Automatic annotation (TrEMBL):
PANTHER family: HISTIDINOL-PHOSPHATE AMINOTRANSFERASE, HISTIDINOL-PHOSPHATE AMINOTRANSFERASE-RELATED
Species: Nepenthes gracilis (Slender pitcher plant)
Classification via SUPFAM superfamilies: PLP-dependent transferases (SSF53383)
Protein name: histidinol-phosphate transaminase
Domain Aminotransferase class I/classII large per the UniProt entry, residue ranges: 97-418
EC number: 2.6.1.9
Entry's Gene Ontology BP terms: L-histidine biosynthetic process
Co-factor(s): pyridoxal 5'-phosphate
Record's signal peptide: none
Length: 424
């Protein structure tokens, strides 16, 4: 297959010559493509519109989705949580009157330095540093791992996808251990990979024996592990992690919530383990979910390929400015984390007292609860939403009848408990 360099062409004009050969002509407007069949222009298209093609043999319709890769047609859309403004309209409440405990966001937001830095940002009209040098230097100070091992992204989400794009050929396999963060499965599907599921044990611990068997039998390329795990908040011990690292598989350890666990990050382990990647984020620790900044620690032998494959400007100027400013106030980050960990303890005790909830102990800023006593988890979520309190409910195979409550400020817990009391 050849490559046609259209770098300088802003208008592409595709036509069939009388001999049936196809060629490119012209140059003036980037957004339209005109196809000619035997000198007859049969359609022009804008990217998102269905396409009609008429051939000399007769009428034939070709719609836009005929261009879509077949495996993507089977993809079910990711179900993100609703943004504040949409929720506000739906619930008929001001955004400020909605208590959002459904996406593990940090309700304290970032340190004040962040808003100040964003307000005085000097060069928003210049493309950002493709290497996010300032941020990576600050992250090296923060983590104790040299910046050469660190790559930043548009949220940890982008890095999950980037890793898959670098590692997986269509048809390759990944191991996923549900219940867990659903983006691993989603991105694997987008990347044309097969997902081998090794469900967690009853107590949400990893089924290491089964993982080992699957690695031997199916030869998957990588496994996604999460510590603390979303949605139950359990952690992975050194012993278990080392056992999995000893297998011939790339281990992506997602530490999006590590700050709340009281445990040290495994970022530095990437110097010792060629098959380990560790992902982290500013979304939770620094209240920057809306600005999209994540980062990862990678072995040197892997990171160079991610540099080659990533979008050059994946971390915006605003995101880098905000993340650097957040790291300048470690005391704020520590205080906010402590407040959330304290509040989690209080929330857990209170949820234990609710007759129709069975909460699970969590090392993170959320608590998973089984909805018991014949109550319906979806209805519980909807009833709370009507009262302006958003929680997450699950309806998948592993977690039917469960809800997850993010830890908020003490006043959020108070309102949640009052609402749960009204539903008792
Ligand atoms: C386990 C886990 N990893 C990654 C993310 C996404 O992080 P980011 O906001 O940096 O994309 C989340 C978000 O909820 C998460 O739960």
């Amino acid at each position: 297959m050849g490559v046609i360099d259209l770098g300088n062409a802003s208008y592409v004009y595709m036509k069939y010559s009388k001999s049936g050969n196809r060629g490119f002509e012209g140059s003036s407007n980037r957004s339209s493509i005109i196809f000619q069949v035997k000198h007859r222009v049969v359609f022009s298209m804008a990217s998102a519109l269905p396409v009609k093609q008429v051939t000399e043999e007769g009428q034939q319709r070709l719609t836009g989705d005929s261009f879509i890769r077949p495996h993507l047609k089977k993809l079910s859309p990711y179900q993100p949580i609703l943004p504040f403004e949409v929720l506000s309209t739906r619930l008929g409440r001001e955004p400020e009157d909605i208590i959002k405990l459904d996406a593990n966001e940090n309700p304290y937001g970032p340190p004040p330095e962040v808003l100040e830095a964003l307000g005085t940002m000097k060069f928003p009209y210049i493309y950002p540093d493709p290497e996010s040098r300032r941020l990576r230097a600050a992250l090296a100070d923060d983590s104790g791992l040299e910046s050469d091992y660190i790559l930043a992204g548009c949220g940890a989400d982008e890095l999950i996808d980037l890793i898959m794009r670098c590692v997986l050929d269509p048809g390759d396999k990944i191991v996923d251990c549900p219940p867990t963060f659903t983006m691993y499965e989603f991105d694997a599907n987008v990347n044309g990979a097969a997902v081998i599921k090794v469900p967690r044990n009853f107590d949400f611990s990893l089924n290491v024996e089964r993982i080992s068997e699957v690695v031997e039998m199916e030869k998957p390329k990588c496994i996604f592990l999460t510590s603390p795990n979303n949605p139950d908040g359990s952690i992975i011990s050194d012993e278990v992690l080392l056992k999995i690292l000893s297998l011939p598989i790339l281990v992506v350890l997602d530490e999006a919530y590590i700050e709340f666990s009281g445990l040290e990050s495994r970022m530095k382990w990437v110097k010792r383990h060629e098959n380990l990647i560790v992902l982290r984020t500013f979304s939770k620790r620094a209240g920057l979910a809306g600005l999209r900044v994540g980062y990862g620690a990678f072995p040197s032998s892997i990171v160079e390929y991610l540099w080659r494959a990533k979008q050059p400007y994946n971390v915006s100027v605003a995101a880098e400015v905000a993340a650097c400013a957040a790291l300048q106030n470690p005391t704020y980050l520590e205080n906010v984390k402590n407040a959330l960990v304290r509040e989690k303890g209080r929330l857990y005790k209170l949820l234990k007292g609710v007759p129709f909830l069975n909460p699970f102990p969590s090392y993170s800023n959320f608590i998973l609860c089984e909805v018991t006593s014949g109550r319906d988890a979806k209805m519980l979520k909807e009833d709370l939403a009507k009262m302006g309190v958003m929680i997450r409910h699950y309806n998948n195979k592993e977690l039917r009848g469960y809800v997850r409550v993010s830890v908020g400020k003490p006043e959020h817990t108070d309102v949640l408990m009052e609402c749960l009391g009204r539903l008792s």
